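Quick one: structure for this chain?
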Amino acid sequence: MIVDYHTHTSLCKHGEGELEEYILKAIELGLDEIGCSEHIPMPNDFDLRHRMTVEEYYSVYAPRITDLARKYQDRITIKRGLEAEHLPSSEEWVKKFIAENDFDFVIGSVHFLGRWGAEKPLFHKDYEGEEIDGLHIEYFEAIRASAESGMFDIIGHCDLIKKFGFRTSKAIDEAVRNAMEAIKRNNLCIEINTSGLRKPEQETYPSETILKRAKELRIPLTLGSDAHKPQDVGKDFDIALGLIERYGNGKVCVFEKRRRKEVRVSTLKAITM
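Got it. Here's what it folds into:
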């Protein structure tokens, strides 16, 4: 079994291509499942540069997944997912939206730090060097809080903050440890997200250092390319599969209706051709 549970299309406003193109690429690669995981719509049109609206969710995203799952049911399994924000000020709204819809899995990701109305975005903003240590601690504290929120199944790109520069200190290490222990305590899995290999970090999210901690804690793993264009579906999964073998005992998490099971990971068709 091999899956890609983290994909974004043009609906997220910073992606390219239509959902069907991503599905066809997954079929070409021989994936068993592909998960659709657009960014959750947020109240008051928050951050519309990076996400669909509520109206687009109900009129485009949800019905399109249903139609394509039926169309390609003999060739691939298509799962309806969501990448949701954890912002304390909007937690009740997000929790209600998730509960009212029929998802197979929900990825919890941190893209903003701070309080509502004064958020620090983690998209393309540059931060001063002296800010970055504090951002690392704040980020992993937010990961811990998202794990404890009870809303999510997967913690997404759980060391995304390293995009601003690698940092380590006793306080940062403690924040990382607290986050990983919260993930374990709340019975979540983490994704091996290959998008970092396509960026200056040249490393998966999370790093092998964090994956070693995950293995020690017996935190299960799943796979995501974080594709924002069809050709990135399954990108660098040869590397990710090696990490699954090393740190996940060769097993990958799959989901259906928010229920998780671990299955033996298989080889990507395109790698063996």
